[in-house]
Specification:
Strand order of the largest sheet: 3-2-1-8-7-4
Number of domains: 4
Low-confidence stretches: 1-6, 662-666, 709-725
Radius of gyration: 35 Å
Largest sheet: 6 strands, antiparallel
Distance between the termini: 38 Å
Strand content: 5-15%
CATH class of the largest domain: Mainly Alpha
Helix content: 40-55%
CATH superfamily of the largest domain: Hypothetical protein af1432
Mean pLDDT: 78
Oligomer: single chain
CATH topology of the largest domain: Hypothetical protein af1432
Number of strands: 16
Length: 725
């Protein structure tokens, strides 16, 4: 699915991209004022402990220190010289900033860094050759000319993961425009403009892919960065090189020495900065890739079929849910997963039909005191009365402010937009489900209006059946209570018989013991009668309305159902392989099959999305039994070989956060999975790296009749003992 221009730009706004370091901001200010000498450099660097340490390390390296004695900061600055100091400060500041971008920790940046350093070094040499006065500004512009690629990776990891390593040419810009409606040059310029520099730096980044004929009268910095980009990315394209060189008044004979000198300087800079560029030239740079455009009619038909299957599956899940609170929780959980709602609540029609009142769900009891009068108007009441979904922002309609009820819900859900889905069963609206979303998600949700209506109808049908069954359940409860009272009287009468026998035999036992005669026969009879009393009392408990207790769930069957669901709905691209490995004996867990199914659906869906257009492999593996703290669990693993998750995402993986779709494997679905695993009495953990991501789940093994040990065949996947997870 293509991302909208508004979608990506809004994601850029909320992506928490790192700001420019203060030492770099002050350095640029001094350079622009042209008042930067050694005293100003020393004062600036001494305020940054990290930068001081970096410069001391370089000054004491073998390249600058021949007598093997440590030097202080002042001596280091003198040894390095102002030119090298400025270069190191700029490079290290940008390097640290780039490494704080989301997803950079799980991405191979060697080729990116070599290209950036090459462009920086060549931009500085070009500036020197054309007598451009601000050499450091040219160096910084070359270093930042492709920062937009990191920004796009941080904000649209699923859509851009493959093209981040693609060849940097005009085809890449065309693919970016087609798939994201924004190029990396535009994204980089947007990011630099946020730093509010008094410079043509943002323009140089924005126009570095422009044809040479358009840049003939452009500012010198723009032309310098254009040539630096061509030399660093396309040195073999003679025509392109000559055109870009002519922009700067550089002849062909100057280009080759410039390239050779730049290569040596890049190696030296990387060594000083501690950047490992070994193998950077071996990182593949394939042509940019865009998924083939689908026929709009075919795409719409496929989406409708997929939505029908999902709605049917959701309806069946609702029908199997027990109790009102369970149904409401299932409705809000499913809506959050299907429509990317950050949070969701349900308002139900009150008995008089004059208002919608909050239905309390787990973790949201305050909503129970909330009410929306239907006669007072407002967007929520209108949605319920007209039985149509509504999309509500801070300003509803053409500048019209939202009502008080809507404003309260916006604050209560902690969001800036609401989606109101009416729950319509036949001719009656039973209530509304309200989801909280970000403003940039509204167009996406509006395109799924019919899907939301179908979802609301299924939820309303299950809700109506539950309300009808509630009255029947009350009558059944009264009937069972009467049966229980009758059975109690019967059991009390029957228990008197064995109790009388026990009393008599105790008397006989007393006299025999006094005469020291054998009593084994009497003891056997006493045991039998005591057992009989126990059976009678147990039969009374069988009449009480109670839960059936733990039930076994066949993991292999649930996995097969999930696999079939994804295949039948067309969610699995041809480039994605799903592999399943099931244990031969350890196959059952204690718990509800529907809950396990919901867990697997969410994890497999996330894994497929994390692989992106390049495809890959998703594995579902039953590793058998695990002993953890003297409890037996079955271990189930869902993994993919995608790009992995960053350290920051892993640190907050199962926390409930607002969803923006930044990356292959992070966002809202995982907090729900965590709560479902806990509901089953299990544990979940995540391992992620450059080779992929794996979610490891421990679920209570079935301990009822016929439960397998999982230890029968050591050649499959034997049980393992874990001290702690």
């Amino acid at each position: 699915m293509q991302a909208s221009d508004q979608d990506i730009r809004n994601r850029l706004l909320i992506a928490r991209l790192p700001a420019m370091p203060q030492i770099l901001v002050r350095l640029i200010e001094h350079l622009q004022a042209d008042d930067l000498g050694m005293p100003e450099l020393a004062a600036l660097i001494s305020k940054d402990a990290g930068m001081t340490g970096k410069l001391l390390a370089v000054a004491n390296s073998s390249a600058y220190q021949r007598h093997h004695r440590n030097v202080n900061l002042e001596q280091s600055l003198v040894a390095l010289g102002t030119d090298m100091i400025k270069t190191l400060v700029i490079s290290d500041s940008v390097f640290q900033t780039f490494n704080n971008f989301p997803h950079s920790g799980s991405t191979d940046l060697r080729a990116f860094w070599k290209n950036s350093l090459s462009a920086a070094v060549m931009a500085k040499e070009i500036a020197r050759a054309v007598d451009y006065p601000h050499l450091e500004e040219a160096y910084l512009a070359g270093l930042l000319h492709n920062v937009g690629r990191l920004a796009l990776l941080a904000t649209a990891p699923k859509e851009y993961a493959y093209n981040f390593t693609a060849r940097d040419d005009e085809d890449l810009c065309a693919v970016e425009q087609r798939t994201l409606q924004i190029t990396h040059a535009e994204a980089g310029a947007w990011l630099i403009e946020r730093w509010q520099l008094d410079s043509f730096l943002a323009d140089a980044v924005l126009y570095h892919h422009e044809p040479s004929e358009r840049l003939e009268s452009a500012h010198p910095l723009i032309r310098i960065v254009r040539l630096a980009h061509v030399l660093s990315c396309h040195p073999q394209d003679e025509t392109l090189v000559l055109e870009a060189a002519a922009l700067c008044g550089i002849d062909a004979g100057q280009v080759e020495p410039m390239l050779l000198g730049a290569a040596r300087q890049v190696e030296k800079a990387a060594a000083h900065l501690g950047i490992d560029l070994q193998g950077a030239d071996d990182v593949p740079a394939p042509p940019a890739f865009a998924p083939p455009a689908l026929d709009p009619v075919q795409q719409r038909l496929s989406e409708e079929v997929r939505n029908m299957v999902l709605v049917s599956e959701v309806g069946q899940s609702f029908a199997r849910t027990q109790g009102e609170s369970g149904l409401l929780e299932a409705m809000t959980r499913s809506a959050r997963i299907l429509f990317d709602f950050g949070s969701a609540v349900v308002l139900l029609e009150n008995p008089t039909g004059h208002a919608l009142v909050g239905a309390p769900t787990q973790g949201s009891q305050r909503i129970a005191e909330f009410a929306v009068p239907l006669a007072k108007g407002g967007a929520i009441a209108k949605s319920a009365l007209e039985r149509r979904p509504a999309f509500i922002g801070r300003e509803h309609g053409a500048g019209e402010p939202v009502g008080l009820a809507e404003e309260q819900l916006l604050r209560m859900l902690g969001t800036d937009s609401l989606v109101c889905v009416p729950l319509v069963a036949g001719a009656r609206c039973l209530g509304v489900l309200i989801g909280g979303i970000a403003a940039w998600q509204v167009p996406y949700c509006q395109r799924r209006e019919r899907f939301m209506q179908s979802f609301g109808a299924q939820a309303a049908s299950a809700l109506e059946n539950m309300l009808l069954e509630r009255g029947h359940a009350r009558r059944q409860l009264a009937h069972v209570a009467e049966e229980y009272r009758e059975a109690s009287r019967r059991v009390v009468h029957e228990v008197n018989n064995p109790l009388s026998i026990i009393k008599n035999y105790l008397s006989v036992l007393d006299s025999k013991l006094a005469r020291q005669e054998p009593v084994s026969g009497e003891m056997s009879i006493l045991n039998e009668e005591i057992d009989r009393v126990g059976q009678l009392v147990s039969s009374l408990a069988d009449l009480k309305p109670s839960d059936a207790g733990p039930r076994p769930t066949d993991v292999a069957k649930v996995v097969d159902d999930v696999q079939r669901l994804f295949r039948s709905t067309g969610f699995v691209p041809a480039s994605v392989e799903i592999a399943v490995t099931m244990h031969e004996e350890a196959t059952r867990i204690e718990g509800d099959a529907d809950v396990l199914k919901q867990i697997l659906v969410n994890l497999v869906k996330n894994a497929i999305e994390a692989l992106g257009p390049g495809g890959g492999r998703v594995e579902i593996v039953n590793r058998g039994h695990v002993n953890r703290e003297r409890h037996l669990y079955l271990e189930l693993v869902v993994s993919d070989n995608g790009p992995g998750l960053s350290r920051e995402v892993l640190a907050h993986l199962f926390s409930p956060v607002k969803s923006t779709k930044d990356g292959a494997h992070h966002g809202l679905g995982l907090s729900i999975v965590h709560s479902l695993v806990k509901k089953l009495g299990g544990h979940i953990a995540c391992r992620s790296g450059r080779s992929g991501t794996a979610f490891e789940i421990l679920l209570p093994a079935w301990s009822g009749a016929g439960a397998g040990t999982g230890l029968g065949n050591p050649m499959t996947l034997p049980a393992r003992a874990l001290g702690s997870a």
